[in-house]
Amino acid sequence: MDKQWLKTGPGRAVVAALAWTLLGCVFALPDLSSGHDRLRGLLLSLTLWWSWGLVVPLILWADRQITISSKQLPRRVLAHFLPSLLVTSVYVYVLGVVRAVFGIGEWNRLPSIGFLVAELGGMFLWNWLVYWLILGAWQAYRYYDHYIASELRLERLEKSFSEARLNALRMQLDPHFLFNALNTISSQVERDPKLARAMIEHLGNLLRLSLESKDRQEVPLAEEMAFLEHYLAIQKIRFGNHLRFETQIAPQVKYASVPCLFVQPLVENAIRHGISRRASGGTVIVSAHQDGNRLTIRVLDDGVGLPTGWTLDNSAGLGLSVTRQRVAGLYPEGETRFAVNRRPSGGTEVEISLPLRWTGKDAAHAAVRVCRTQRNGGRRRSASQAAHYRSAAPRF
Asked: pLDDT tens-digit profile of 170-204?
């Protein structure tokens, strides 16, 4: 049965009729098991609850007319006292009519006051109590409906707060990255204007990619690595052969979803605090592979390593701490692992473990972005320029 049809007026009427019929059958079970006039017992029970089905809209209408807030429950219940008597009286006549239709009542008794007086002395109190049971069930449904609506509103607020927090963290990271990049470029302006212009060109590409992804918290790993290539191009111009970079990206995770712009701060941290402090330079390695249903990303360097007493909670800089908070904010608690350790062979290793997620639309978008980036990069850089950059690069 179509769920949308059930939400219409006829659909709700059918569901209500089935519910009242089921209720009547349940209350008729004692009569059906006794063996005495089972059909009459079943009809008496069914007509009893079918009549309530006809009167319930009147109960709901009376409840809607009461303007007292549901938060003032005692006053609201007291306001139902007079309507409960009137509706129960109406129900008594409706029950008489329904039973007369099915041949188990008398038509000539219905218009008389004696019929109502007889009911007052018999089943009126029971029917009045049923009124309050129906009203209580209706109020419970209303409270449940309000609770669900409040939960949805709270969930939306929490989501909006989380997005605002992540955007604030992202805004902290962008100026930090831009400031460092401009410092790198400024060191080359007087020494080699041609190198400075090449750096500015790569910086422009970085800013363009950053703006294009500003409304997305997650991107394919291939797109993240394309952004990283422009950053490394600036650093390679600065450090020349003293900076070596390797990637070990497993093909099956190339288009896995990762936090936007989170690898670049880790690589920048490795260069600034590890590689740049060694006279002979060093190597930065970025690896990514699938580990079951998780994605593990590592950023390794063979630089000077972590200082004595360094801890992630107390000693991390802005780039590292913001990246850690963004990763934690994008995934539910306990689904990520962010660790910074000393390498036995020297240097530092940053390991991040994330749930492995895929987005086909982002994967296709990333493939186009990577091809375009590689094509544009190939046009801009010639072999002679690369040789000039290497020869002119300053030493540590």
From this structure: 554 455 566 667 777 777 777 777 777 877 887 77
Residue ranges of the domains in the chain?
A: 3-122, 172-392
Question: What string of H, E and C letters represents the secondary structure of the chain?
Answer: CCHHHHCCHHHHHHHHHHHHHHHHHHHCHHHHHHCCCHHHHHHHHHHHHHHHHHHHHHHHHHHHHCCCCCCCHHHHHHHCHHHHHHHHHHHHHHHHHHHHHCCCCCHHHCCCHHHHHHHHCCCHHHHHHHHHHHHHHHHHHHHHHHHHHHHHHHHHHHHHHHHHHHHHHHHHHHHHHHHHHHHHHHHHHCCCHHHHHHHHHHHHHHHHHHHHCCCCCEEEHHHHHHHHHHHHHHHHHHHHHHEEEEEEECHHHCCEEEECCCHHHHHHHHHHHHHCCCCCCEEEEEEEEEECCEEEEEEEECCCCCCCCCCHHHHCCHHHHHHHHHHHHHCCCCCCEEEEEECCCCCEEEEEEEECCECHHHHHHHHHHHHHHHHHHHHHCCHHHHHHHHHHCCCC
CA distances from 122 to 100, 220, 335 (A): 18, 75, 65
Question: What are the pLDDT digits (tens) for 221-232?
Answer: 998 898 888 888
Residue whose C-alpha is closest to residue 77's, from 146, 141, 10, 133:
133
CB 313 within 8 A of CB 274: no
Amino acid at 58: L
Average pLDDT over every residue of 250-263: 88
> What's the pLDDT at 392?
38
> Top-level CATH class of 172-392?
alpha beta
Q: Give the model's pLDDT for residue 191.
A: 75
